[in-house]
Write a structure and sequence with these properties.
Elements (H helix, E strand, L loop, with lengths): L4 E4 L4 E4 L7 E6 L10 H19 L3 E8 L15 H9 L3 H18 L7 E4 L4 H13 L3 E4 L2 E4 L15 H11 L12 E5 L19 E2 L1 H13 L3 E7 L3 H16 L4 E7 L2 E3 L2 E2 L10 H6 L4 H9 L7 E2 L2 H19 L9 H16 L4 H13 L4 H15 L11 H22 L3 H13 L3 E5 L2 E5 L1
Parallel strand pairs: 3-4, 3-10, 4-5, 10-11, 12-14
Antiparallel strand pairs: 1-2, 6-7, 7-8, 8-9, 12-13, 15-16
Helix pairs in contact: 1-9, 2-3, 4-6, 6-7, 9-10, 11-12, 11-13, 12-13, 14-15
The structure holds adenosine monophosphate (AMP) and zinc ion.
Length: about 475
């Protein structure tokens, strides 16, 4: 097994990844809140988590990855205030919550498919697991970690020695935030307590409600990820992922309730992706028009250009979205694909020479998922002293992780790619012949192309061709 070093938000260090069971990785991802399309910021997180999962697999780990779909309980503020986002979506579109959930869940997976993001092994909507949430909340009450007040069930953060295990926040900093934008909930024993089950809310129009020992109501957002993770991945989780905004309060609360429920440490590694920002700041679905994959397509960008844009920077750095940069990536991506398409796939593999590049690629992944370094290895391969077949085989393997379709013919365009590669090869041969003053050979090549309906012209910028 190759070495994987990862930054762990829990320890705030890059450290070697050691799973609970040798060779196996249990991985949990916070899924989308399906009340609107995913913006390309959300998708940055899913792209980088996809690379993480594929890196583990590439290194030989047996991965089981679980993701929830948030279709209830995520309020307009990540704290316990505001309206359920699903209800906001339903009102906006005059549909039921379940219709909204089905539509945007489908839209999310379509975006993922376009971006070559693999679907996790298990995808579980929160509304499927109400019995599990209730069972977990009952146990938390029994153990003295949760209490009922004013009709809601709260987690008592005052019972924990270190509630802020994941984030560096202290109570004072938090209180500033609370005073600014969250109305105080007088039922809470501590400011940081959070709702596990709502039966009372200012927003009583909640569409989906379930019976529970505490009355008819609905679960809080945080409990869903703990319960769904434990249901499918057991009591010890290797790695949990999400965007950086999830660190507090969502993941902090997940740790609090999971460890209180289990009575032991729950998750060893926390992987957080920094935000994609636009010139006005963090992207947000509530900002009116926001950037989606479809919008990029309408503007003429292949979705994989956006994937490459993400891979070229490190997941632990904020990323600024700009069309100028995307244009540069588009040009680089098209050039790269053309170059790979022109490689001759026939020939014996030069295993000895390939090994160094293979090692460099794995080393880049193992270096805290250094995707830009991994892409550099692809360029190094193209420049290497190695036959085309070996180059193609290496890039084909690397693309298991990068998933940029580097070795795949464009859909419906297989013939086009072959033809382009053939013409460019012939032009190169003709230029070489001309350089050696072998004009007979150069003319023969021109004639061969012309016979196929391909006309070439020599210009100051180089040789161009027309069909
Ligand atoms: P949501 O659908 O709001 O539950 O968010 C889905 C995922 O996107 C979560 O992991 C968030 O942390 C992440 N996320 C939200 N905004 C951004 C952003 N601007 N850049 C990167 N990831 C984000
Ligand atoms: Zn979550």
């Amino acid at each position: 097994m190759s070495k994987m070093n990862l930054y762990n938000t829990l320890t705030k260090k890059v450290e070697p990844f050691v799973p609970n069971i040798e060779g196996k990785v249990s991985m949990y991802t916070c899924g989308p809140t399906v009340y609107h399309f995913a913006h390309i910021g959300n998708l940055r997180s899913y792209i980088m988590e996809d690379v993480l999962e594929k890196s583990f697999r590439y290194m030989g780990y047996d991965v089981k990855r679980v993701m929830n779909i948030t279709d209830v309980g995520h309020l307009s503020s990540d704290a316990d205030s505001g309206e359920d986002k699903m209800l906001i979506g339903a009102k906006r579109e005059k549909k039921t919550v379940m219709e909204i959930a089905a539509f945007y869940r489908e839209a999310f997976f379509q975006d993922c498919e376009k971006l070559n993001i693999k679907t996790p092994d298990v995808v579980e909507p929160a509304t499927n697991c109400i019995a599990e949430f209730i069972m977990m909340i009952e146990r938390l009450i029994e153990k003295g970690y949760a209490y009922v007040a004013g009709g809601n069930v709260y987690f008592d953060t005052g019972k924990l020695e270190n509630y802020y295990v994941l984030s560096n926040q202290n109570e004072e900093e938090l209180l500033v935030g609370v005073r600014e934008d969250v109305e105080e909930d007088r039922n809470k024993r501590n400011k940081t307590d959070f709702v596990l089950w709502f039966t009372k809310s200012k927003f009583d129009a909640q569409e989906l409600k379930w019976d529970s020992p505490w009355g008819v109501g609905y679960p809080g957002w945080h409990i869903e990820c703990s319960a769904i993770s434990i249901k499918h991945l057991g009591e010890k989780l290797d790695i949990h992922c999400g965007g950086i905004d999830n660190v507090f309060p969502h993941h902090t609360n997940e740790i609090a309730q999971s460890e209180a429920y289990l009575g032991h440490k729950w998750c060893n590694y926390w992987f957080h992706v920094l935000h994609l920002n636009d010139s006005t700041g963090k992207m947000s679905k509530s900002k009116g028009e926001f950037l989606t994959v479809s919008l990029l397509e309408e503007k003429g960008y292949h979705p994989l250009v956006y994937r490459m844009f993400c891979l070229q920077s490190h997941y632990r750095k904020p990323l600024l979205f700009h069309y100028d940069v995307l244009d540069n990536v588009k040009a680089a991506y098209e050039k790269l694909r053309k170059k790979v398409a022109s490689l001759d796939r026939e020939g014996e593999l030069q295993q000895e020479k390939m090994k160094g590049y293979e090692d460099a690629f794995v080393c880049a992944l193992g270096n805290d998922i250094n995707t830009s370094q991994a892409i550099t290895v692809v360029y190094d391969v193209l420049k290497a002293d190695m036959n085309d077949a070996s180059k193609f085989a290496l890039i084909d393997r690397f693309d298991q992780v990068l998933s940029l379709d580097l070795t795949k013919e464009k859909e419906g365009n297989a013939a086009d790619a072959d033809l382009t590669a053939y013409i460019e090869d012939m032009i190169q041969q003709r230029n070489a012949a001309r350089k050696e003053k072998d004009f007979a050979r150069a003319d023969a090549i021109r004639k061969e192309l012309l016979d196929k309906g391909i006309e070439i012209k020599d210009t100051r910028e180089g040789t161009i061709w027309n069909l």
